[in-house]
Amino acid sequence: MKLSRRGFLVAAGATAGGGVLSKLGLDLGPSIAHAEALKTRYARESTTICPYCGVGCGLIVSTMNRNVINVEGDPSHPINKGALCCKGQSLYQVATSPRRLTKVMYRAPRSTAWEEVSWEWAINRIADRAKATRDATFTKKDDQGRVVNRTHAIGALGGAALDNEECYLYGKLMRALGLVYVEHQARI
Amino acid sequence: MAEHTFYYDGSLCIACRSCQVACKQWNYLPGEKTEFFAKEGGYQNPSDLSPITWTLMKFHEQETQGEVEWLFRRHHCFHCTQAACIEVCPVEPKAMIRHPEFGTVHVDQNLCIGCGACVEACPYGVPHVNYELEKSRKCTGCYDRVANGMLPACAKTCPTKAIRYGDKGELYALAKQRVKELRQAGWPDANVYGPDQLDGLHSIYVLPVKLETYELPAKVEWEYGRLEPIKRKAQEKYAAVLRERGVGLASVAGGGISGALVASGVVAAGLKKLADRKAARAREEAEEQS
Amino acid sequence: MTNHWTDIANSDCIMIIGSNAAENHPLSFKWVMKAVEKGAKLINIDPRFTRTSSKADIYAPLRSGTDIAFIGGLIRHVVENELYHKDYILNYTDAAFIVDEKFDFSDGLFSGYDASKRKYDSAAGGWRYAFDTDGNPKRDPTMQDPRCVLQLLRKHYASYTPEKMSEVTGMPVEKFHEVANAFCATGTPEKSATIMYAMGTTQHTYGTQNVRSYAMLQLLLGNIGIAGGGINALRGESNVQGSTDYALLYHILPGYLKTPRASNTSLKAYLKKWTPKSLYGDKSANWWQHTPKYMVSLLKAYWGDRATKDNGFAYDYLPKLDEGTIYTHIGMFEAMDEDRIKGLFCFGQNPAVAGPNARKERRALGKLDWLVAVDLWQTDTMDFWKRPGVDPKTIDTEVFVLPAASSIEKEGSISNSGRWMQWRYKAVDPPGVAKSDLWIVDKLFLALRERYEQGDTFPEPIVNLHWNYGHEDEPDVHMVAKECNGYAMRDYEMKGKTIKKGEQIPSFAWLTDDGSTCSGNWLYCNSYTEAGNMAARRDDTDAANGIGLYPKWAWCWPVNRRIIYNRASVDTQGKPWNDKKWVIRWNESLKNGKGGWEGDVPDGGWAPDTKYAFIMKPTGHAQLFGYGRVDGPFPTHYEPVESPVKNAMYSQQNNPAIKLWASEMNELGTADKYPIVCTTYRVVEHWQAGQMTRNLTWVSELMPDMFIEMSRELGREKGIANGDRVKISTARGSIVAFAVVTPRFKPFKLNGKLVHQIGVPWHWGYSGIAVGDSANVLTPHVGDANTMIPEYKAFLCDVEKEV
For residue A25, is pLDDT > 80? Predict the structure, then answer.
């Protein structure tokens, strides 16, 4: 879903003002005489939810030419009503940071450096390794002869930063592989 | 339209510093390299306002009769009514300007020559010159946002509405009311800062404890004696800049309209036209969609 | 959270304990301050004066790890002064239930303890109610029987006097009274109080019991199920609620179904073991009686048409837990360090910084054959082989780094602490070749399936896995979300209605145990129906009761119920305890005079007094007597594993049911060498293990360096001034940090003895732009008896000035 340009502006005026300003009888509607070029003026807008803590604040991401140009609180969102903390307010930097990982990388045993590899190579190699480990360690029945169909030699960690649908598929795959060491941030 | 003001209520602030980051985000200001913390009493960083830090949270620890208090103050441009920075700005027309409608003060980045007079004159240490760009940089009051019906970035992002922005008269009144409430709620020293300074600041504070805790001057004098030499020195620098740009000095000294200023006037008029066109388009768009 | 974020504004009294909400959940303070503006009292309990404390009406310090001594004191105060909500506890809790005569408690130990196994035998200890001839718990409606739960509770907490509480916690007696007077005044029907808590509560060897003690206090005061009430766990990651609901934990399957144990040898045996029987017949909704429908629907979602009645819906495909193995995070790293785990998938987690006993966990990573790390950033975990002090040439692990898309570079949903499932949209493409986790999981699966199609070891669960999410390069996230909700596998009839094959299931009440339906997570059934994607809704109008439920904004589990246990917000006739902020109420005029509920989605639509309020419990009553925990039915004060003092209440020093690891690098410290209490925490400027903030300049600027906070008294004693470099040592290791010497920490006076406490944030590591020593080098591999969550929040250290 996309907010229209107007949706954002009107929402920004109405909601932000709704709490503070309209109560104070101030109209912060567009001030035509001194209108300034707003950097988000022609941007495309989409809503998102903050990736940091569990409050679940709403944000509006403004993009131009497929680049993020601004991120700020979603004034319509019932929880944060346009406000954010310093982390949520930093989301722009998550999207634009030159420090983001942009390549698939591999570090061979005893190597002192990363090397860039292709997705295809990495996925195939991981599948080979996972299969080899699973097959070598798979337990169909335990000492008491009970069917257990599991491996104790592969672990899965993480997921609190993933979407629900990703968690679901990730969990589904790991359990189909017979993993029982499945854990994530909630445990620590 | 009536003037605006920023408003900061220390009794609501949780010092999350989202205002600091929101300011950097909207204005595309880079992060600063810092170490540990700048001051005792809390987590302040960077150590001061700078060309790339326009708003800053200050922390103060206080202990009275075994009870600890942790107090916060959001520091940024006060947008003074008696603005020393405007007074000393040598550029004509002034690069340091008061927004005709909102009353806030900002630097016209096209006009500013980075002479540093405002830095020297400001009683609160607000403006800072970026020497690479030769421009004075400080809080703009987010006049671009405000002119488009949005709150300033810091006021919008504040989780507890400790920072507000709006009609000066109304927020001055709210501050008074809030101090009354705080005094009843166990903060006998609660006070307002701003209305009594420099003919009324366009950024006021509701402070739960005594002013001294916040290292703020109660009395800020408008001292012509101090400002005059700053202004004179700045005018000389401006003249030198004009000379460098090949503009005659006499016109400046005589106070007449120099070639340079005519030129900037033309630019300004052009910008205004552009802005008018954009505004008209905004109006049309709004009508279309309503 | 039993309630949700905006509901905090409805509270009359807010106690923030084990949480620094202003710093770690700053937007909660929008609602906290709103409540305060309306006159609510804000109480903050913390060893250290924080940004949260700065806004509190009452700040009461408490030594880390002594919550139960404090809450026990409040429970005693409530019971002795009869401040409880009597109708509520009588009708909605087990306060009037009679307990088995064998149950006993003496000097810190419950009946049934086997010291040789360090375990309780709850059956032998009589941890159950006394039953009548119909098999239902006996009750004494006068609540005077000395064996009823209320009287046993009174007896259990009789020794938790304000003076004893103070001696243990270090909280001044007068502070305790201030808190008790404010908080316990909410036992009246028209008042509500909430408890906001987080990891300061849970990260102890008795963390589960800490939480239980809060819940018990709230039950006594009638504060569960009502507006402005509840016990509210503030979750620290954007989707740690969802990832828990989706069971990325060893002990559960999606929707909190139990992971099968080896002893659950068939689907039938599994369902028999884990489907609880209703007590009190029809009056108990006993919602978990529907376990078979949810489990079978999950198996159908996993294996589709290959899950049939004849093969027990492919139950054998699921891996089974070995009952003797500890699979928790700590257990996993212990196994890894013992060379028993060879490969690790790590999606967006950074255990090299976040894991307890980080030196050990970093070493353990080096024993893996292969590590797959998926992240947005170069993390300390993927860089473990080149961490300071280690020669990469000695580490054999193959490491794969897969670059992932950020939250605004893909589409999908996350669930917040208040259980709201909210949809996010893609704004831009990920940088470089980075891909969504969904894409990565899909590609891994396809590569594995291709291999197992050739046969080999037990290929069936993989080749038969139902995996159909469109034909694009990226799986269609809507198809995944629809499967999570569930759809009909064939036409079927229920409640006089036919649901056609392929139609979305309207809610979990429509799930079946005969294979007609699939649902990847029954709790989310109702989130993506024939009416569309409920999580994407953006209508912010409020419900009729005007208490900020926002029922049409996004979607909330279960079945869009915004406040759970809300049948306890009304009396047995369906009349709200408080008309001014009612959650649900029975309206006789609805449904053509048949009557119906209005307000929030009720905890079941049955008429008042036809079902007991707590529908998830077999008895229909909330449990003050918590017989299901491994370490006892009543929370009991124990000292942290590492403590500077003897347990002042019992001769049993520690939680008797915890696991102590005997392996290498698990040294524990004693007070003679390490006399200072240390705790870890977070700050608003950084996030978790730091990868999402230590790579950003704007927040790194605010908090560039690792630091330690200590009192001025300790600073003087150790000759440490603000800004000095300080070495902090524990039995696990030592780190160096800048000193913040502050009046916000104060030494505790415990029975005349002065005990110092310090604190360290745990965000830093060796990768990123803001780097520093990791606090978790200091923390031990010991955990809670029930969950094995590490005891990060109270351990022993010493500090000295670095020269």
Answer: no
Pick the CATH number of C329-411+430-463 from 2.40.160.10, 3.40.50.740, 3.50.50.60, 3.40.1360.10: 3.40.50.740
Could C22 and B16 be called an inter-chain contact, meaning their C-beta atoms sit closer than 8 Å?
Answer: yes
From residue A124, alpha-carbon distances to A120, A127, C436, C443, C447 in Å are 6, 5, 18, 9, 6
> Which domains are delineated in chain A?
44-96 (3.30.200.210), 101-133 (no CATH), 138-188 (no CATH)
Averaged pLDDT, A142-154: 98
Look up residue A20 and give its DSSP letter.
I
**A117 CA: distance to closest CA in chain C (Å):** 9
Q: A interface toward B at CB cutoff 8 Å?
A: 4-6, 9, 12-13, 16-17, 19-21, 24-39, 41, 70-73, 75, 80, 82-86, 88-90, 92
* Range list of β-strands (E), C354-438: 370-375, 398-403, 412-415, 420-424
Q: What's the whole-number mean pLDDT along residues C585-613?
A: 96
d(CA C183, CA C196): 13
Report pLDDT for A13.
Answer: 33
Reported ipTM: 0.97
* Mean pLDDT, residues A66-79: 97
**Whole-angstrom Cα distance, residue C582 to residue C603?**
14
Which chains neighbour B (Cβ–Cβ under 8 Å, 3 or more pairs)? A, C
The token duo for C603 is 């905890």
Task: List chains adjacent to chain A, taking adjacency as at least 3 C-beta pairs closer than 8 Å.
Answer: B, C
**Residues contacting A107, CB < 8 A, separation 6+:** A113, A114, A115, C385, C397, C398, C399, C401
Reduced to 3 states (helix: H, G, I; strand: E, B; else coil), residue C710 is strand
In this complex, do A20 and B164 lie within 8 Å of one another by their Cβ atoms? Answer: yes
Is residue C448 within 8 angstroms of chain A, CB to CB? yes
Q: A46 to chain B nearest CA, in Å?
A: 17
Over chain B, what is the mean pLDDT? Answer: 88
Chains linked to C by 3 or more Cβ pairs within 8 Å: A, B
CA-nearest residue to A11 within chain B is: B150
> 19-38 in A: which are within 8 Å (CB) of C?
none
Which pLDDT tens digit goes with each residue over B171-195?
999 999 999 999 999 999 999 999 9
pLDDT over 50 (residue A32): no
Q: How far apart are the first and last CA of chain C?
A: 47
Question: What is the pLDDT of chain A when averaged over all its residues?
Answer: 86
Mean pLDDT of chain C: 98
> pTM of the full predicted structure?
0.94
Q: Domain spanning C676-801: which CATH class is it, in words?
A: mainly beta
The answer, for C701 touching chain B at a CB cutoff of 8 Å, is yes
Q: What residue spans define the domains of chain B?
A: 1-290
Q: Cβ of A37: how many Cβ atoms within 10 Å?
A: 13
Contact C27, A84 (CB under 8 A): yes
Q: Residue A70 contacts by C-beta under 8 Å, 6 or more apart in sequence?
A: A39, A40, A43, A61, A62, A92, B25, B26
Within 13 Å of residue A106, how many CA atoms lie on the same side as its CB? 13
What pLDDT sits at residue B250? 46
Confidence of residue C333 (pLDDT cuts 50, 70, 90): very high
| Peptide linkage before C790 cis (omega within 30 of 0) | no
Return the bridge partners of A68, or none: A63
How many degrees, rounded to 5, is the angle at CA A52 between CA A48 and CA A54? 90
pLDDT per position as a tens digit, C503-562: 999 999 999 999 999 999 999 999 999 999 999 999 999 999 999 999 999 999 999 999
Best interface-test mutation with C: which of B32, B35, B37, B57 has the largest number of C CBs within 10 A?
B37
Q: Is there a contact between B61 and C701 if contact means CB atoms under 8 Å apart?
A: no
Class of domain B1-290: alpha beta
A 10 A CB-CB count for B289 gives 11
